Amino acid sequence: MLLLLMVVVGIWVLWQRSQFPGTWEHTFHVRYAELRDRLKQARKTLREVEKELSRAYNEAASKVASIRGEHEQRVARLKREVERLQNPGRGEERDRLGKAVLYEHVLLTPKGVELPLHGLSAEVNTSVDQFWLYLTSYSHGPELVGFPHRRDPATAADEDVPLFTEEQVRRFEMAINAAAAAEKRFRTGLPAQQARAEEELAEARKDTTAVKAAEQNRTHVMDNNRNDPRLTKARAELAAARNEWERKTGRRPPK
Hints:
The strands form two sheets. The chain has a four-stranded antiparallel beta sheet with strand order 1-2-3-4, covered by helices on one side. It has helices spanning 2-19, 24-28, 33-86, 166-206, 209-226, 229-249; strands at 93-97, 100-103, 106-108, 114-116, 121-126, 130-136, 143-148. Strand 6 (130-136) and strand 7 (143-148) form a beta hairpin. Helix 3 (33-86) packs across helix 4 (166-206). The chain starts with a helix and ends in a 6-residue tail after the last helix. The protein is built from six helices and seven strands; from the N terminus they run αααβββββββααα.
């Protein structure tokens, strides 16, 4: 404990010596207390002014970053929308039955064939052991997707095949046809959507008014800080206090 106290005292002494250079009397004697106080107060005043001005500039700079970030996010969002309309891809998953997956814009068959929903129609037929989903489209030949509803008695013991009810298959049929109808409406309105999205993107890229205003405010704050009379006065007072200390001690104190 005593050793720790000695270390702390030693650090404080060194710091005092660095802040108020000269002889030990200059650093610690009561005769120079007023001179030390003047130098200490001048430093404190300058630090407070600098801190306040720095805070004002940081707030202005933060505002620039925030507004610029919002602008960039808006442009990025509109760009993604344009790209989505140009290349819709599969879209979000809407439904699935067995290995057949219905997406927003395509139907993925169990064989891995992607059937665009535009122009696609589905119809259910029933055989002895299968429900058959008969698929026709503009861009592909007919496709048959089977959904077994009973096992073959001859191989049932060796099979582990999921079975489907007629309700499940017909519900899936309805989902496909409904999605195809929605896709037709989507494709019909697609050119107009693309034009609107591209126009919004172009306008967003050009609309930098808020960003420029924030940047101008930041520049204004920076100029005000540089010419702030409080800063000029605090620097002059510190320079005077340092000069006086140097005259009386022969040592130039730090800022």
